[in-house]
Predict the structure.
Amino acid sequence: MGSDVKNVSKSEVDERLSALISNASAIRAVASAVEGTLGPKGLNCMLVDRFGDVVITNDGATILSKIEVNHPAGKMLINAAKAQDEEVGDGTTTVTLLASALISEGVNLALRGVPIAKLIEGIKIGIKRAIKVMEQNSRPIENFLSPLLYRAAYVAGRENEDIARIAVEAGRIMGKEKLLDPAFKLKDMVVAKEGAENEVFLGLIINKERMNRQMPRRVEKTPVLVVDDALEPEEIEDDALATESGFREYQRLRQEFKQGIEKVISLGVKFVAVSKGVDRLAEEMLTDAGVMVLRRLSNKEISKLSEHTGAKPIKRTSLSKSKDELQTFLGYAEAVYHDEKLEHTRIMGGKGKPVATILVGAATEEVKEERERIAKDAAAAVQSAIKGGVLPGGGAIELYAIKEVEKAREETKGMAVYGIDCVIEALKKPLTHIVLNAGFNPLEKIGDVLAQQAKNNNDALAIDCDTGEIADMMELGIVDPTLVKVFALKTAGEFAEAILRINMIIKKKEEPSGEEKEKSAHSEEV
């Protein structure tokens, strides 16, 4: 690294570095859980819980979310990977490897006497320069017919052609404007079902069956009522019900409730969605009127249904409103269909916000969960690619960025150069593990790729994992969304800075619970 860095024996290690060493060990352990999954030849991880239930996957986000970690630094790394997944929907394994590499290199240099502040300074410089390279070399996606968009979905979807196709189709249906909306996540539109056929349709799926079999299986061109409450009369206390006046009040409330249901029916409503239970009287009246009812919907389902149909959720007390007032709360759907085989209900053609559902079929429950994860990754890749374009995958762009990062090192004075060295080593990690998982020597292959990239000034050169030869990733169709790469580098850099700044780990004293605080406050008042 240089003559100005001295070797320090273990006995000379400052006490404050013991926290850094502990944190680095925990982070390395977490990273080791996912590094074997990277690349087309990556292997699966089997996750087993205490009941013997098994999940087999090579999805980094799933592995990190399910492994048991007790060390606080390990938990911090998992949270950083989770932030990556929530922001761009992919790249959790990459951010984990980059962060681990930055910390490992940083610890090695800190043990040799490089000040932490200088390491952090250099890491910031190196990360900034690498991100600039990626942004400058990004290939924009012109439209939904672009082959690069399909390839981004194909790579993220672990080479499942059927899933890649429907992910791109879903993006096309939603449109570029919707995909650019920060609040919209295309991956949230993915639903996997045993026995289903792959398809994309305008509408949403609710995993509920109609309330009884006497209700219609299908209704069309119907106003929609959404009740974010129980569809029941207002309650009256048991003590009051025992009195004559209380019983009269009970009868009055029942009568008002019945009149409210009659108003709903008279407005032509053929589909009612309820977040809680449904009174027997309401069930009988709505069944006789040919109305389909779904009950006990989650808050998320109520929200999605309201957005798609344009309905405004009401409470049960709103049934006392006039017909004209009640009319303003209704939504609309072209068709509502209950699929008995798949045990779900489809709501299609709502007058509210358009929604595209990506339905992915699977043979078994275990396969269903994995295909759902794959489809979510593919959908996220489509959205990210539309937003920010794509870059060569396979670890190519990270290696290409090293040349510019090395230039930054030459321009930097003092010991901050060692922080830049951390970034250079981290940028080698994606290709290192891709090549290693494919059965080749990473040291040899990385040297060959760096030489060829410099010779041809080509940011797409990496290793073909089938042959072990240098190949152009763009020609092979191996691409990743630019936002995934950029956000992974940024997140890894911020995480490394946070960990390197920790010079002591102290166990907090036990904080009193809310109840204990109230008791303490009460005793002080007394």
Residues 197 and 361 are 5 Å apart (CA to CA). The chain has three domains: 12-139+391-500, 146-195+363-388, 203-352. The two ends are 67 Å apart (CA to CA). DSSP finds 21 helices and 14 strands in the chain.
